[in-house]
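Last lecture ended with a question: if I hand you only a sequence, what can you say about the shape of the protein? Today we answer it with a concrete record. The protein is N-acetyltransferase. Below, first the input exactly as provided, then the predicted structure, then a couple of comments.
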Amino acid sequence: MIGRLVRLSSWEIPDVDTYVKWIQNPEIARLTHMVGRPISRREIDEEFSPYFRGQSTVQHWAIIDRKTNELIGKIHWEECLKGPDVYELGIVIGDSERWRIGYGAEACLLAGELLFRELKAHKVMYLCAEYNTPMIELGIRGGFKEEGRIRDRFYVNGRYWDGIWLGLLKTEYDSFTEYLTAQLGRT
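The predicted structure:
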């Protein structure tokens, strides 16, 4: 899957080394599900082990910068128990200097094409901490709706933060692609 800024490719065992560096950076870890305490290499290997053995329901994809051919992020999804054809999405861009440039937005757009068009998803959703305002704003501006709040879901920097669920239905996806395409066209 190829965009203007990034391409999505298969997630490979050597990519885990880069992911470990990202997750061990507190600034990046606090924007993922790996918050609250340091995560060991062993725990990360255990997370990916079922995937590499073909026994995981989670699909992991590498986000590659098209200009440099460098691994800059990871996006993943899995069909969840919240209903048939409902997918939960997660993304991380591993270098804060690459945030707010459009890499993550384009990766989400490419993932959406696969999820909504090929896998026939009814809904895509994601959970993020309330302090992750760039991700919340991106979703809401693109048509995602706030669907719920999990009180005190994340503990970061000595306090609890709510988790916010955002969701996008297949019927809303076209407006999301129009929004992201317009945003990416300006970068």
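Comments.
1. The two ends are 20 Å apart (CA to CA).
2. Residues 6-185 form a domain with the Aminopeptidase fold (CATH 3.40.630.30).
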